[in-house]
Amino acid sequence: MQLPWPRICLAFSFTVSSVTVGRTRLAGPAILMPSPSRADLAALPKLDLHRHLEGALRLTTLRAIAQQHGLDLPADSLAALRPYVQVVDGERSFRQFLAKFDVLRRFYLSPEIIHRLAFEVIEDAARDNLHYLELRFTPAALASSGRFSLADVTDWVIAAVAEAGRVYPKLQVRLIVSVNRHEPVALAEQVAQVAADRQARGIAGLDLAGDEVNFPAAPFRGVFQAARQAGLGCVAHAGEWTGAAAVRDAIEHLGVRRVGHGVRVVEDPAAVALARERAIVFEVCLTSNLQSGVVAAFAAHALPRMNALGLRTTLNTDDPGVSGITLSDEYQIAVDALGLSWADLQQALFTAADASLLPPAERAALAARLRAALDRLDPVSE
Is the pTM higher than 0.70? Predict the structure, then answer.
């Protein structure tokens, strides 16, 4: 892989001996450029493995739906609605964060609304120069009005993503269905079957999300075993609001190869060793971790330590609508607050490509497209 050579940084360049891409350590030298500018990050081809549909909705669209359908919410202005569906200053707890999703369940009122919301999520990702997105959604949430089946809402999301794919062909999308720890195992079994039946239409995985503080992963072992046998990739949220034991549980009980968040893994050397041994990939989401109280400040985030410990990490958005961010914003934070270099960002991108829930040939093709896009990029640092 040839890293992009910046036009104005020759006097500031350094060499490093190697860069790790997936499990492969490439021989150097590679160029470390000065901190990339916002324009550089916007132009960077990006991959997001951890983005929730329900947490990625446009505030303007939510306001329009609330007005059109007379929802009992203040929709006179965006400012009035924002605190109900988006994190605002001073909110720093997982309960406040999750409360937004209770409100958002009130918006999924028709097939047309669900289609519009899903299409716009893909559109926003394309506008942020994403080249690959694994979009997860929770059928139980979309069907929470009681009028729709799990299969119906899943089909509507699939149709919207397919339509968006025709409009934005450069963005490759795969879907992950999510089940919640705090909801019945029997419901998770139903959702997993709906997902397994639709693998040929773009569903690639099953995710365990929800309240990990009060609900362990172990009861879902059978659901995830069956999902793996059916051919679905398995991922799980863990080590976000509880300690490293939750990461171990997800790896050992659910058999996942990717962990959503997982930042608390650094608290236990044995968990770190297990994650390294099994080449677990961590889907890190910086702003979400701050807003939900996982960290007190960006500077305290575990990502640099995770990288130093040899863990495989990626950068993702989690809930860009709820958080009011883009993936470019997350990369900017990684550079400005955590000191990640241009080479670090590229390593995260290739790790994401390597960990994607694609068949091997498609995974290799994604990495090749990413490499070609990076080779064409000629960033200018301010």
Answer: yes
